[in-house]
Amino acid sequence: MELKDMLYEGKAKQVFLTEDPERVVVRYKDTATAFNNIKKATIVGKGKVTSAISALLYDFLSKAGVKTHFEELLDECDQVCRRVKVIPLEVVVRNTIAGSMAQRLGLEEGTKPENVIYDLFYKSDELGDPLMNDHHAVAMKLVTYEELQVIYELAGRIDSLLLDLFRRAGIHLVDFKMEFGRTAEGEIILADELSPDTCRLWDIETGEKLDKDRFRRDLGHVREAYEEILHRLQKVINQ
């Protein structure tokens, strides 16, 4: 597939146009960022690991009936994806309280709520990706209430599938961020990525963090933790 102009460059990925107007190539970079791009570093080999994990998870979800933008791996860091118009919302699903929610509300990290928590954040680097609610999103014409219902139903389905998959790999899915996009036909599907960059993943037995918190909190061995996630997922999925 021939790459053409770069359509977009984010913190961890580049998106290129191709000769097919309905397809793009998403390239995963070796960069690591945190705190709205204040903390940055290059971790050699990270891009190919995050790409492999995301491809594995999207293929798993697709086989379970969840529609995603992912189509195939082009090489270690490049993925062929369906072109969608990304909805500028980050949907965070929280199975356990951690990170910004724990800090914001003064709750102990690791608290297990009785309900699954869904947060919305407005995708805006200039504003620091602020927390918002459904009514804000509708008022800003980012989505309709009907589209939000579709998004939440998809998010719940994805959470259920991934919780079980990671549990079988000895990992607790603490929380994770998703983004969704509209196809040319107006259908809402899963976009962006799923990897330790976008998920909090704790070892079930030891509680060890195996995600981007290793970078955020200066715990070290970031790539090695990501490689451990990939190894465990491959072992479970290929059983």
Globally, the shape reads globular
Specify the helix fraction band. Answer: 25-40%
Largest sheet: 7 strands, antiparallel
Mean pLDDT: 96
Number of strands: 14
- Approximately what portion of the residues adopt beta-strand conformation? 25-35%
Q: Which parts are unreliable, with pLDDT below 50 for 5 consecutive residues or more?
A: none
Structural class: alpha+beta
- Using only C-alpha atoms, the radius of gyration works out to 17 Å
Number of helical regions = 6
User: What string gives the helices and strands in order?
Assistant: EEEEEHEEEEHEEHHEEEHH
| N- to C-terminal distance | 32 Å
Description:
With 239 residues, the chain is α+β, with helices and mostly antiparallel strands. It contains six helices and 14 strands. The strands form three sheets. Strands 8, 9, 10, 11, 12, 13 and 14 form a seven-stranded antiparallel beta sheet that branches. Helix 1 (46-63) packs parallel to helix 6. It is globular, with a radius of gyration of 17 Å. The model has no long low-confidence stretch (mean pLDDT 96).
Features:
alpha+beta; 239 residues; 7-stranded antiparallel β-sheet; single chain; 5-stranded antiparallel β-sheet; 6 helices
In brief, what are we looking at here?
The protein is 31% helix and 31% strand. The chain has 239 residues and is an alpha+beta fold.
